[in-house]
């Protein structure tokens, strides 16, 4: 990564046993600078997952950055699950990126992953 490169996330998990991370579900990445990275390794063991996300061609083909610390390729957890669009190119992603199976993605697709019952508003109820 060069100074000034655009990055969407920089998650700060320091050890893999920490129960932290980012999970983006049903999002869209569009209309920003070219060659944006989905994330960079700010700390040693970040965990970030994009699921069902539409990615325009602005996403860097490699997808993710180890933040010029190559040893972090062994400790990061970057995952993608059923993403689509010109910027979702698994064949061009860096080797340390996980293309998640259904079972691997499941924990990141539930509200409990982000303790959403504590801060997300419940869906509105529609009167009959």
The structural domain count equals 1
* Radius of gyration computed on alpha carbons: 15 Å
* Sheet of most strands: 4 strands, parallel
Report the count of strand segments.
Answer: 8
As an assembly, this protein is single chain
The low-confidence runs, each spanning 5 or more residues with pLDDT under 50, are none
Could you tell me how far the N terminus lies from the C terminus, measured between alpha carbons in angstroms? 54 Å
Arithmetic mean pLDDT: 87
Task: Look at the helices and sheets and give the structural class.
Answer: mainly beta
Keywords: Aspartyl esterase, Hydrolase
Enzyme class: hydrolase
GO molecular function: pectinesterase activity
EC number: 3.1.1.11
Can you describe this structure in just a few lines?
It comes from Gossypium arboreum. The protein is mainly β and 128 residues long.
């Amino acid at each position: 990564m060069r100074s000034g490169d655009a990055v969407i996330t920089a998650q700060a998990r320091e050890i893999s046993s920490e129960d932290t991370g980012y999970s983006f579900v049903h999002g869209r990445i569009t209309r920003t600078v070219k060659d944006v990275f989905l994330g960079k390794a700010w700390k040693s063991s970040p965990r970030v997952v994009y699921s069902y996300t539409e990615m325009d061609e602005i996403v860097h083909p490699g997808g993710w950055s180890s933040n010029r610390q190559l040893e972090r390729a062994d400790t990061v957890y970057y995952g993608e699950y059923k993403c689509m669009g010109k910027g979702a190119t698994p064949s061009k992603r860096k080797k340390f990126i996980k293309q998640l199976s259904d079972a691997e993605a499941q924990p990141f697709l539930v509200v409990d992953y982000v303790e959403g019952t504590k801060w997300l508003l419940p869906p509105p109820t529609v009167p009959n």
